[in-house]
Amino acid sequence: MTIMTRMFSRTSKWRGILLLLLPAVALQAAIGIYPLIYIIWMAFHRYKLTRPGNYPFVGLDNFSTAISSGAFVQSLIPTLLFSAISVAGILILGLSTASLLNRSFRGVGFLKTATIIPWAIPYVAVGLIWATVFNGQWGLLNKLLYSLGVLDVQDYIPWMVSKGTAMAGICVAQIWKEMPFAVIFFLAGLQTIPTSLLEAARIDGAASRHILIHITLPLLRPILAMVGIYECFQAFTMFDIVYVMTGGGPAGSTELLAHLSYRTSFSYLDFGRGAALALLLTAILLISATLLLQGIGFRKAGEE
């Protein structure tokens, strides 16, 4: 009877656990798994709202049409450029800021708090803020350059109209928004490095750059990989900042793949090709994340 009672008790316990997990699993399936399956289904069908009720299976036709179009190539280059610049900027500036905040000086607590503020601002608001800064007529950047005597009023620069400066503008906005995330993790990682190890290196005559290359970066490698992968995902799927600041212009120079997928789906009402573009973006993102891991030199602990 004792064995039967224990088995019944364990069965009841697992049933209770499953019942508690069921709402969370159902919610995850509703908002995550089902949309993914539906996107995959749309990518293999001719799903156009201009032809309602007629969604034939077309295999890889949506993918081949998307890849062969000039819009895909035109969006792929800005996507890779934007991702490379923003991720590199976030990692470099994030580590530099974390190194500064890791020191003890007056006002460091205020600086730590102020550093987090951009991360708490929604992406749409970030886009509006930096669109105001880079506005060619009354933007804050032109006003600042005018007050410093660098520009005259008639020489105001239309930052968001030129291809090069428009790309730089959205990269600056992305770095400003995402850098606090990197600072938080890098600062936590720096605080785990034993001070005795750094002091011993300084006593041995190691320069700051040697300490950074041979001690700090190797110990921060897992955090670098995690932050790099996260920011890679953020950059490749960025839509809000681009939509608000440039709308993909000028002349498509800042139209990222996420924006192209949106435009294909909701402007041309071709949800099949838009879904195919989204899946292609996912594949490119996974390849880029893998290359980033290899570039950082991250390996499993057992392989060290």
Report a brief summary of the structure.
It contains 13 helices and no strands. The protein is mostly helical and 304 residues long.
Describe this structure as you would to a colleague.
The protein has 304 residues and is mostly helical. It has one domain (71-298): Orthogonal Bundle (MetI-like fold). Helix content is 73%, strand content 0%. It contains 13 helices and no strands. It has helices spanning 2-43, 61-68, 70-101, 108-120, 123-133, 140-147, 163-190, 195-203, 208-219, 221-236, 240-245, 257-266, 271-296. The chain is globular and about 75 Å long. Residues 300-304 have low confidence and may be disordered.
Give the key terms.
304 residues, 13 helices, globular
Please write the string of helix (H) and strand (E) elements: HHHHHHHHHHHHH
The number of helical segments is 13
Please tell me the overall pLDDT. Answer: 85
Instruction: State the low-pLDDT regions, or none.
Output: 300-304
Structural class, from secondary structure content?
A: mainly alpha
CATH architecture heading: Orthogonal Bundle
Helix amount? over 70%
CATH superfamily: MetI-like
The coarse silhouette is globular
Distance between the termini: 53 Å
Q: Compute the number of structural domains.
A: 1
Major sheet characteristics = none
Instruction: Work out the number of β strands.
Output: 0
How much strand?
under 5%
The CATH class designation is Mainly Alpha
CATH structural fold name: MetI-like fold
Radius of gyration: 25 Å
